[in-house]
Amino acid sequence: MSQERSKAPGQRRPQSDANQFSAISFVIKQYLAGVRTAMPVIVRGVRNAGGIEPVGTVDVEPLVSQLDGTGKIVSHGIIYDMPYLRMQGGTNAIIIDPEVGDIGLAVVSDRDVSNVKSTRKVSAPGSNRRNHFSDGFYFGGFLNGNPAQYIQFSTEGITLVSPTAIKLQAPNISQEATESISNTAPTISDTATQSVNLSAPSIGLDGALTQGKGENGGDANFGGAITAEKEITGNGVPLSDHEHDKVQPGDGNSGKPVK
User: Fold this and answer.
1) What is the rounded CA–CA span in Å between residue 12 and residue 10?
2) 27 lies in a domain?
3) Counted domains in the chain
4) Residue scoring higher pLDDT (172 or 74)
């Protein structure tokens, strides 16, 4: 039974058989054309558990297309389940998982790494496959647009920006500055389940002060003198200008303040 020959244009040219050197060069070029090393790719799919989970994989499409013998563009298609890079040492990591549309670099291993991907241990090659896209790893962060959430390091310092929220979580968090610490926002809220301690040679408050009206309301105790440039009112009675009833002459005592 005869076999139908492919009608797809090949890479062979009339000069490919011009002499022995040309023939050998054609064979070598054809072999090298199948060797994959590295190529820019775009992410078409992301698979990970989200949150604080082990690194996942991406589906990518090479950005540099193939050409047939007539110069016609031929797409590579999608390469599935390519592990992506996460900056991690031990249990310490910076988690920036890739997203669909990201551009990065696919770096291809020279051996079949399927067994390593499944066991994460020293393993024999899964096959005799060599320099194949199936054994690639994704490194992100090339040719992408402006970020909206970022950490910027420059000669002016470190800038941390998020359009949504920034959360710090640890058993102990401390801030140390040799000059000053500033917080600016429409509303600043601090909540402690036990106590809040402020210690400084001088503490200045600029604004109206309300104490004792929340669920943790209580008394105010001062160990030093209190100086007020304006009136002090206690239980509805002004301190500097009030009257007493039942006033007695001499060494007698007056009654309680009435207003």
Assistant:
1) 6
2) no
3) 1
4) 172
Domain of residue 136 covers 36-140
Residue 251 and residue 259: Cα distance in Å, rounded? Answer: 23
Residue 98 lies in a domain: yes
Q: Give the residue, 240 or 117, on which the prediction is more confident.
A: 117
As a whole number of angstroms, the distance between CA 144 and CA 9 comes to: 35
Alpha helices for the chain (secondary structure H) = 20-33, 114-119
Structure tokens at 143: 């040719």
pLDDT higher than 70, residue 6: no
User: What is the token pair recorded at 33?
Assistant: 């054309």
Tell me which long-range contacts 47-53 makes (C-beta under 8 A, separation of at least 24).
47/81, 48/97, 50/97, 52/95
CATH number at 131 reads 2.40.50.230
Judge contact between 34 and 100, C-beta under 8 A: no
Which amino acid, residue 41? V
Asked, for residue 207, whether it belongs to a domain, the answer is: no
Is residue 112, in this structure, part of any structural domain at all?
yes
Work out the burial of residue 44: count CB atoms within 10 Å of its CB; fewer than 13 is exposed, 13-18 middle, 19 or more buried.
Answer: middle
SS3 content of the chain, % helix, strand, coil (to 5): 10, 25, 65
